[in-house]
Structure formats: C-alpha cells, structure tokens
Design brief:
48% of the residues are buried. The strands form 7 sheets. Strands 10, 11, 13, 14, 15, 16, 18, 19 and 24 form a 9-stranded antiparallel β-sheet that branches. A 4-stranded antiparallel β-sheet has the order 20-21-22-23, with no helix packed on it. It has a 3-stranded antiparallel β-sheet with strand order 3-4-5, with no helix packed on it. 21% of the residues lie in helices and 19% in strands. By secondary structure, it is α+β, with helices and mostly antiparallel strands. The radius of gyration is 23 Å and the shape is globular.
Length: 551
C-alpha cells in the first residue's frame, strides 16, 4: 500500500515524536496538560512502549493530525457503531451553572462540609492517598498559600491521608461528588494479589472463557489478555473485567449474535483490532484520568456530545480514572446513568466483586505520607560510562506519570545494535517478570509486583533476558540494552518505579535517586537530568559529555 505525500510526512512525524529516547517534536509543555485530556482514546496508539515488535506503516494505521498538532480522534457511537469525528480541542473557560442531567436520587456535585464567614466561603477537605499541597492547589485552582491546615503543611511531599484542610470556595458547580471505587480497586494493587483472573473467567463461563486472539507473535486466551494488559499498565484486572462486561457482556454470559470479536468494546480504531488493543487503550485512559486528575492536570471532562463538566476536586484518583474513561463513550446524561444508575457500572462492579471497601480498608492508603525510596544504584556496572539520553518521561505510556529515565551505554556500537554492555539489577529483589523486552524486580520478595516497591527495565534484548522466577542481587545481569520493543532512536534501557501498583513520577514527592544522583525534571518530556552535590548531568539524546554519568 503506497502512502500519499501528506500521509508519509505524518507517518514520519509520528514515528520521530514517539521515539523513547527523543523528545516530542511538538514541544508540548506540562503546563498545557489540559490539552492531554482532550485528545482522548487514541493518543497512545503508537507510543514507544506499546507492546510492539514493529510499527505498521500502512496509511490506515496513521492518526490524522489537526491544525494545532493534536490528534484528530474518531469515536464510535455505542448505539449504532457509526464513527463520529471528534471536535478540535478547545481550552475556553468552563461555563458553570448551566445544570447537568443526573440519575434519579443523585444530586449535583456541589462541595460538601462547607463553612462560611463574613468574607468568603470556605470548604473543608480531607487529604487522600497521593495528595500533595501542589496537587490540591491545582485541583481546586487556588494558590498553595491559600490552602490552610491546623497541622503542618509540607510543600513537595505527600500529605498524611485524613489531614484536614481549609480551602477557599472558588469553584461552584462540578460533576458528581459520589466516589465510585477506592484507588486500590483501580490500580493493580495489593487488593488484587490473591485474585485469580483465570479462575474467575472460567467459573463465570461466559464467552471470554472461550475467546482466543492472536497478539503479535502468539495466541492468547481471554484470561491471558486480561493478565497482560493489567500487568503492563498496572490497572486492576477486576476493573477491566467489569468494564468489558458492561460494554460487551463477554465475561458473565453470551453476547448477542453476531459476536463482534474485532471491536468488543466499541472503540473501532483503525489498525487496533481485537480485545487486547481495545483494552490497552482503555487502560491508558484510566491511567490518564487517575494520575492526571489527582495532579490537577485534568480538571474537566469532555463528553461524547461535546459538553464539558468540571471534575469535583474532592474525589479520589480512582474515581477520576473511571469517570474519565466513561466520558469518552457517553454524553453527559448517559454518562451519569451508566456510572451511578441502578443498572450502571458501580452496581455491576459491586455485584461482580463484592467487598470493595473491605478490601480497600485492608491495604490503603497505597502511598504513605512518609514514603521513602529504598537505596537504588544506577542500572549498570561501576566504572562504566553511560549517557542519560532521556530525562523524566512516561513510565509506561502517556497515561502514566513522567517517572522514567533512559540510559544508553557508551560502547561505540552502531545505533540500535544490541549492546555488549549489561543492564544490571539496581538492588536486591525477586525477578518476577522477564519477557517481551521487560524485566521487573519486586523488592519485597512476595513475587507480586503490585505490592511494595518494584523496578521496571524496558528495551532489553529478548535473547539476553535473565530467566524470571528467581532471587537477584545487586549488580546481577538482567539483559543487554537494545532498541527492541517500540520505535527508538538508539540502544538504551528505560527504567521506572512503582509502589503498591502506582507509577511514581521521577521528581515528585518521592524523589528518584540512583547511586546518590537525584532526578530533576523539565517542562518538556525527556529533558531534565540528575544532580549529586555540585555535579550535574543533563539529559540529551545525542550523548554529549554533559550527559555522561559514571557509577
């Protein structure tokens, strides 16, 4: 299939902009994060960390780009399956007070626990897991100095869950206040450590138990697809199963004939056929709402009918993730009913997986206020010269926080040739996963990477991977860095952290420190660097002297 000139230019632009070790050519800044949440559905389609051995070049796999450089998205109506072009994102101020439709018995989401004095209205808010002063300030759209508490408020660190805060009441009408699920039911957290995906699907006896699908180089069962997407994106498999059941009926029964095996969820993105790819896109959007909503990067939802609604800043990250996902499929009225109504998602989830809040009480908060990273070393041998080719960027895909770094060995091989250098373990632990160019070390040794600390290494040459399922020690060899998996501009290793299933930003409340080097970020992805005392290393894809670090 031949590409037209415009399509060829677009394809080259996309491939360059997604290279794991190269900054996006658009230069999109973090403070324009509201644009991220308006791209919806397919912004991650061709990311460098997608589970791909190669990226198709056919024109039908390309995402057309609007005049502003943002993806022109095609959405699908759940009623008739007819593609419907999305509108170009706009950032005009949200017009509040217009009213929104809600299910019977559910009121509009005004702030709760309001207090008033003679000068201004104030609201009482209780800090939640993962909250920082900066995140709360962004969500409530107030300066940090106007957030008050009777207890000490620290800047830049995690706040103790339950700490009471007083916040000026600048925001009025918002979307529904009612929480949907706790955070631990949305990320692949300790609450799902004993959940068997295979047993649940088999016992349910639905179509999913018989489904088979060819994903890249092998056939996968329905259970294997759920496991793969959940593990890689760190989204709770129970959440994915419940969403799949609501959209297709595949989990608990037999869907109406004919079965739509190509697009069971109804996204219908060209070149992304099948359950696996549709679930990957959904998991990405859940993460985008989860992390973006908590940080105040995403403040409003844009529904399928192009109406907008302000997120309630009192909600937890898990609720943001689900509300964001559903806004991509429904207009505002149907969104509310499909989430909170008697036949909605919340009722379905509680029916499929009862004991939601009891499970959460046993494992939350996922992020303790005094969380500190354990001691970690740079992922290569002492004395070796490596280049920091990528500063903080997405941990897994563009739904995750900017928590990853890229290191390239300075060994002189041609670009994208598998290096003779070795990527080594940054600490002791258990090698819980080692396949498809990924190795994951679980630090607490329970063999489940969704609890405690885990370190992820990506782009390891497949043939060199150390076998999973065994204890590893600091400096044990994990594999050779390469360009394998995704589209990359040079041989390197991508390293990121998780704690209790949550992806952690590299320069956030829990600093990323390797061999005493503390990571700092820039407004642009892949920029930034590391500092150790007065020494400075600056990320640069070209590997100049200023990017070299020796352990």
């Amino acid at each position: 299939m031949k590409l037209k000139p415009l399509q060829f230019v677009i394809s080259i632009w996309i491939l360059i902009s997604i290279a794991c070790s190269m900054p996006p050519l658009t230069g999109a800044r973090l403070d324009q994060g509201e644009q991220i949440q308006l791209g919806v559905i397919v912004a991650q389609t061709l990311t460098a960390v997608a589970d791909a051995q190669s990226i198709p070049t056919e024109a039908e796999y390309l995402i057309p780009t609007g005049s502003s450089g943002t993806p022109a998205v095609t959405q699908v109506s759940p009623q008739n399956g007819t593609p419907e072009p999305d509108i170009e994102p706009s950032l005009e101020p949200l017009q509040t007070g217009s009213g929104s439709p809600y299910p019977d018995g559910v009121e509009s989401g005004f702030f709760l626990n309001s207090e008033a004095d003679d000068t201004e209205e104030k609201f009482l808010y209780y800090a939640q897991s993962g909250d920082t002063l900066e995140f709360i300030s962004a969500r409530f759209s107030v300066p940090p100095e106007q957030v008050r508490s009777d207890e000490k408020l620290k800047s830049g660190g995690l706040l103790p869950p339950g700490q009471s805060l007083t916040i000026p009441g600048y925001i009025r009408n918002t979307l529904l206040y009612q929480p949907l699920l706790p955070d631990s039911e949305v990320v692949y957290s300790p609450s799902a450590a004993d959940f068997s995906i295979q047993e649940y699907i088999d016992s349910s006896g639905g179509y999913l138990s018989r489904h088979r699908e060819h994903v890249y180089d092998r056939w996968l069962t329905g259970a294997e697809i759920i496991q793969k997407v959940s593990t890689e994106s760190s989204v709770n498999p129970m959440l994915l199963l419940a969403f799949l059941q609501q959209r297709s009926g595949w989990v608990l029964g037999e869907p109406p004939e004919p079965v739509d095996k190509l697009y069971p969820i109804g996204l219908r993105v060209s070149g992304k056929k099948g359950l696996y790819f549709e679930l990957v896109m959904c998991a990405t959007q859940i993460n985008k709402g989860y992390y973006g909503g908590r940080a105040g990067i995403i403040k409003e939802l844009k529904f399928k009918d192009r109406e907008r609604g302000r997120l309630n800043p009192q909600l937890n990250a898990g609720t943001y993730g689900i509300q964001y996902l559903f806004s991509l499929f429904y207009d505002q009225g149907r969104w509310a009913n499909n989430l909170y109504g008697p036949e909605g998602f919340l009722a379905l989830y509680q029916e499929m997986f009862p004991g939601v809040w009891e499970r959460a009480a046993a494992v939350e908060p996922l992020l303790e206020a005094e969380l500190v990273q354990p001691e970690l070393e740079l992922p290569f041998q002492p004395g070796e010269r490596w280049s920091l080719t990528g500063g903080p960027h997405y941990s897994w895909n563009d739904g995750s926080p900017r928590g990853a770094l890229d290191f390239a060995p300075v060994t002189g091989e041609p670009a994208c040739e598998v290096s003779r250098a070795w990527v080594t373990a940054s600490t002791d632990g258990y090698l819980t996963r080692s396949a498809h160019n990924v190795a994951v070390i679980d630090l607490d040794g329970d063999r489940f990477e969704g609890s405690g600390w885990s370190i992820l290494y990506l782009h390891l040459a497949e043939e060199s991977l150390t076998q999973a399922g065994k204890a590893v020690r600091l400096d044990d060899r994990l594999g050779h860095p390469s360009c394998e998996r995704g589209v990359n501009t040079g041989t390197h290793v991508h390293i990121a952290r998780k704690y209790n299933g949550e992806w952690l930003p590299a320069d956030g409340s829990v600093p990323f420190i390797l061999s005493g080097w503390e990571v700092f970020a820039d407004e642009l992805n892949y920029k930034g660097g590391m500092q150790k005392g007065e020494q400075l290393v600056v990320a640069n894809v070209n590997g100049p002297r200023t990017s070299i670090v020796v352990r």
